[in-house]
Write a structure and sequence with these properties.
The protein is α+β, with helices and mostly antiparallel strands. The chain contains 15 helices and 13 strands. The protein has a domain of 58 residues. A hairpin with a 5-residue loop joins β1 and β2. α1 crosses α4 and α5 packs across α10. The two termini are 30 Å apart. The structure holds zinc ion. The structure holds a DNA duplex. It comes from Poecilia mexicana. GO terms for molecular function: DNA-binding transcription factor activity; RNA polymerase II cis-regulatory region sequence-specific DNA binding; zinc ion binding.
DNA sequence: GTTGCCGGGCC
DNA sequence: GGCCCGGCAAC
């Protein structure tokens, strides 16, 4: 998917700083393009509000006054009708982020309380990895003690945890080997964050961040990254943190606004863990989808086929480890599917996110925990950092509705639900760990004050595929997708009490209505 | 009469 | 799929 930066495309009818650009077009009520509301409701830091054409608005507070862009791509992506809003900080740390450079605090507020805790490496691009090693460390060194900077090799070069210690050669040696070999390696490792925490923790974060099942195909691979795309990745639900991983990559990529990385949001509905999972080993070599049932087999495959090692030799220098990952094949996902019949079922992710091999391995294992329950996820997040998840909906939900959660600073939770943005309603759950809004036109994301909490992108309304494990696996799932029970025709739901856009805004302000209302469909903004 | 929105049509 | 609107049921 591609999120566009509305700001950049003024033609779309976006306004910043309260300027309204109405783009009327002939029609019954004339206005087609949603007007942008003024950003008057929030005193304090600068607020930018961007409106998408669905009428939804996203606002960003940026302490730096750097430019902010938001975009959405209606109907783009896995699910049609998905509207995505991306808000990003283009300059400064912002864009990429969080992870970029030496600001541990940038990880969406996650790291704030744990100095240096936000660092993690995303191993997607070996080449990047190498770069990272070179470029990041120095930067890192500024703020972090050397000891922390050079955590266990494993933290930099993720190796699937569950893998048998095949030739657990010296890890250091491995690391060195990897670094040197990565440049030519098919795998792409990518630095996502600067690791400052113990590896174990880091991975957890990574896991929790895991991948989004969502849409965005935009994993920001750079040219060198292309090796991975073909690699199937298991759809995982991820939480907000995910975005960070990406953003961490190069400055170049991240700075480019158009190249927005997206946050993946966790599934609105937690998925259950599947039972019959069989562990398989999948070759991660580019264009190689080989899946074997044994690690030795896969290692041999890699050695002989990809590494050009002597086929009859069992000698392993451990390098193969980087080229395969364990995957769990779901043997009976079907039963699960039954529970997720509804169209909006969050069971899965959209287009299989490209899954960085080693990471995938890790994430997979973590995946269970993450998906296990929403609450669990929250707890994870809260542990590592005070981030808040916000579930938001946009008007375009009509086209595809799916709550999205985005990480925001703790403060946000209060703002979102407390101060109420217009007619919206906010509900905070528990400790304000997650907030869900059904908000009126303006959807506002505000970064936490202080270091920087950037909400980089928001994707909305993503449908997920039922896929549970790797898609290397056979998809039995499709069988599960039986049509949801159809409500008996003729039964009309009683009208909800809530005032809908029509009534709230009136015909005069039809442009403020949510898309659904404009189309005379069930209102998505003010749901019952 | 107004509002909400289903169902269906047009592009 | 996006968009619009006739028409009907609920207010
Ligand atoms: Zn509405």
């Amino acid at each position: 998917m591609e999120s566009k930066c509305i700001l950049e495309k003024s033609s779309v009818g976006t306004s910043v700083g309260g300027v309204v650009d109405f783009n009327y077009r002939p029609g019954r009520y004339n206005s087609r393009v949603p007007a942008v509301a003024k950003s008057s409701f929030t005193p304090g830091p600068i607020f930018y509000k961007c409106v998408t054409d669905g009428g939804s608005t996203a606002a960003v507070k940026n302490e730096r006054t750097s430019s902010v862009g938001s975009g959405h791509s209606p109907g783009v992506g896995i699910l049609q009708n998905v509207e995505k809003t991306a808000v990003r900080d283009q300059k400064d740390i912002g864009s990429t982020g969080i992870l970029k450079r030496a600001s541990p605090t940038l990880c969406l507020g996650m790291g704030r309380q744990l100095p240096g805790s936000s660092i993690s490496l995303d191993i997607r691009n070996p080449g990047k990895q190498a770069e990272l090693a070179n470029s990041i460390r120095p930067a890192q060194g500024q703020n972090v003690p050397q000891a922390e900077i050079q955590p266990l090799p494993s933290s930099h070069i993720p190796v699937p945890r569950n893998r048998n210690p095949s030739g657990h050669a010296d890890k250091e040696v491995m690391a060195a080997t990897v670094l040197t070999s990565l440049s030519t390696s098919p795998l792409v490792l990518y630095p996502s964050c600067v690791p400052t925490e113990p590896a174990s923790k880091t991975w957890k974060e990574v896991l929790s961040a895991s991948y989004s099942s969502s849409t965005s195909g935009n994993w920001s691979w750079d040219a060198s990254d292309q090796s991975v795309p073909s690699t199937p990745s298991p759809p995982l639900s991820k939480d907000a943190n995910t975005g960070f991983l990406h953003s961490a990559q190069g400055d170049d990529a991240s700075e480019d606004v158009s190249e927005s990385t997206h946050f993946m949001f966790e599934d609105p509905i937690p998925r259950k863990r599947k039972n019959s999972m069989k562990v398989m080993f999948k070759c991660l070599w580019k264009n190689c989808e080989k899946v074997l049932s044994t690690s030795s087999g896969i290692q041999r495959h890699i050695r002989t086929v990809h590494l050009g090692r002597n086929s009859d030799s069992d000698y392993s220098d451990g390098e193969e480890d980087f080229y395969y990952s364990e995957i769990e094949v779901n043997m009976d996902s079907l039963t699960e599917g039954l529970s997720s019949l509804t169209p909006t079922s969050p069971t899965t992710a959209g287009p299989p996110p490209i899954f960085p091999p080693p990471l995938s391995d890790v994430s997979r294992s973590e995946y269970v925990g993450v998906n296990g329950s929403q609450s669990h996820t929250s707890s994870l997040l809260s542990q590592s950092a005070p981030s808040t998840l916000c579930h938001i909906r946009t008007d375009h939900a009509y086209q595809a509705t799916a709550p999205v959660s985005i990480p925001v600073g703790p403060e946000l939770a209060g703002i979102g639900s407390g101060n109420g943005i217009g007619p919206g309603t906010g509900t905070g759950t528990g400790n304000g760990i997650s907030v869900s809004w059904q908000q009126p036109p303006p959807v506002i994301f505000k970064g936490a004050p202080g270091p920087v909490t950037h909400v980089r992108t928001v994707s909305i309304g993503e449908k997920r595929q039922p896929a549970v494990s790797t898609h290397a696996t056979v998809s039995k799932n499709h069988a599960l997708l039986t049509p949801a029970t159809k409500s008996a025709p003729g039964t009309r739901k009683p009208r909800g009490e809530a005032k809908k856009c029509r009534k709230v805004y009136g015909m005069e302000k039809r442009d403020m209505w949510c898309t659904a209302c404009r189309w005379k469909k069930a209102c998505q903004r003010f749901t019952d």
